[in-house]
DNA sequence: CGACGGTTTGAGTTGCGTCAATTCGTGTGG
DNA sequence: CCACACGAATTGACGCAACTCAAACCGTCG
C-alpha cells in the first residue's frame, strides 16, 4: 500500500546521505536518525511545503526536485531569497521566531524528508556529530547568504548571472547531475527576483553570454561551454566556499 | 593586577546576559557557562579581532563597543557584510569551513567575551537550553541576512538608509541605549559599502532626510525625529522580525 | 596655521528599469 | 490536426536613479 511505500526509503540507502545531515554519523547513529525522519508524498510543481507565518515544526531535506523560498514584505512585494536543491536542508531560518518567514514552493515534482525539529534537537543531545553537522549546516547557510549579499550590493548584472550559473553548476554537480548540462528548475522571472534584476535584463545578459559562447541556453536547458570564463566573469568565486565544505 | 581585573566580570552580573547566550539558562547553568568564557583586553578602534582565513577557534560576544566584518573578494574588492553591537554573537559564520570568512575589526574601543567553540559545543551537550539558544542565534543571523538581501536586491537608496537607521535604532534600544539618539560607530563610507551605495549617495540621502525632518545628523551624532515616518520609508520593516524575538 | 581624513555638493555619465510591442512555446478546444 | 489563446521570453526605445569624477568644505590634530 501507498503509505508503507512512502516509508520504504531509508537514510541508510539514500544516495544523498553524504550531503545531508547523516553525513558524519556512524551506521548505528544513522539508524537512530532514520527513525525520526518522515517521508512525504511528492509535491507537484507549484505546491507549497509551508506558508509564510505558519508555525514551525519541521525542517526538510530535499531528496529530489527543487524548491524556492518566497517572502512577501510588508509592502506586498514578493522576493525570492533562496533555491533549494537535492541534499540541502530547508527551514533552518524558522528556528528563531518559531514561525516560517516565507513560503516554500516546489519548482517541479519534488520529494522531501520531513524531520521534526524538536526530535532532531533531542536526538542531537546524544549524537555530537549530528549536533556539529547541524551547526555546520546553519553556518554554511549564513556564509552562502553573505555571498549573495555581496553579489547584490555591488556587482553588475553580468557578474550576478555568471555567479548564479556557476553556483548552480557546482550544486548540481554535488548532487550527482552534470556540472555542464542541466535543466533550470526556475523561470527567468524567478532568477530575476532572486538576483534583483528585471526579467528583461536577464534575457539580455543571457543573450550576451551566448554570443560570447560562455554557454547555450534554450528554454530551460543550459549547457556551459566555457566554465573558466564563466568563473572569471563571476568575480566572487563560489568554490572558495564550496571546496572547503567537502573537506 | 590587570589579568585578574579582566576576569572579574562574570555572566551572572552582566547587564547584557538577557540578550546573550546565557539568555534562558538557570543560575547554575550560567555558572557553568561562565567558566568557559574568557574576557579579553579591550580592542582599540581599528584593531582586528581576527583576520580573514585565520583558523576558527572561538566565537565572541560583544560586551561594549562595536565591530564590523569585512570580506575581501577574489577580485580584491572590500565588502562589509555586518556590524555587531553589544549583546550580539560574532563568528557563527566560521563554523562550517573552520576558517574565518572575513576580517573582524573594532569600530571603537570594544570589549568582547571569548568563547572557545569546541568547549561551547561540548557544554551544549548537557544544557538543552544553551543548545537551543545557539540554534536560535544562528537562525536569527540567517533571517537578518535575508532581510538585508531583500533590501539590497530591490530597494532604493532612501529605503535602504531608512531601514538601516531604523534597524540600528532597535538594536541600540535593545542593548540599553536610547532608540532616538545615538552615536554612529561607523563612517559614511562603511555604511555605503554595507548598503551597496556610493558614499556620495549616502550623503545626499541623509541631507534629504534632514530636510524632511526625519532625523538630524551632525558628524556621527544621530537623532531620530520621526520614527513612524522613518519606518514607513523603510518599507521592509525590521520589527516584524525583532518583536517576535523577544517573545 | 597648515595638512589631512572624512564629508558634502555639483555636473555629467551610464547601467539598468520601465514600457511597449513582438515572438516563441505550450496546452486547449473545436 | 490545426487554430487559437495565453503565458513566458525576447527585443527595442527611452528615462532615471545612482555612479563617477572633481572640487569645495569641515573638523581635528600636530
UniProtKB/TrEMBL annotation, chains A, B:
Residues 155-228 form the HTH crp-type domain. The lineage of its organism: Bacteria, Pseudomonadati, Pseudomonadota, Gammaproteobacteria, Oceanospirillales. PANTHER family: CRP FAMILY TRANSCRIPTIONAL REGULATORY PROTEIN, FUMARATE AND NITRATE REDUCTION REGULATORY PROTEIN. Residues 46-91 form the Cyclic nucleotide-binding domain. GO terms for molecular function: DNA binding; DNA-binding transcription factor activity. This is Crp/Fnr family transcriptional regulator. SMART domains: cNMP, HTH_CRP. Keywords: DNA-binding, Transcription, Transcription regulation. It comes from Kushneria konosiri. InterPro entries: cNMP-bd_dom, cNMP-bd_dom_sf, Env_Response_Regulators, HTH_CRP, RmlC-like_jellyroll, Tscrpt_reg_HTH_Crp-type_CS, WH-like_DNA-bd_sf, WH_DNA-bd_sf. GO terms for cellular component: cytosol.
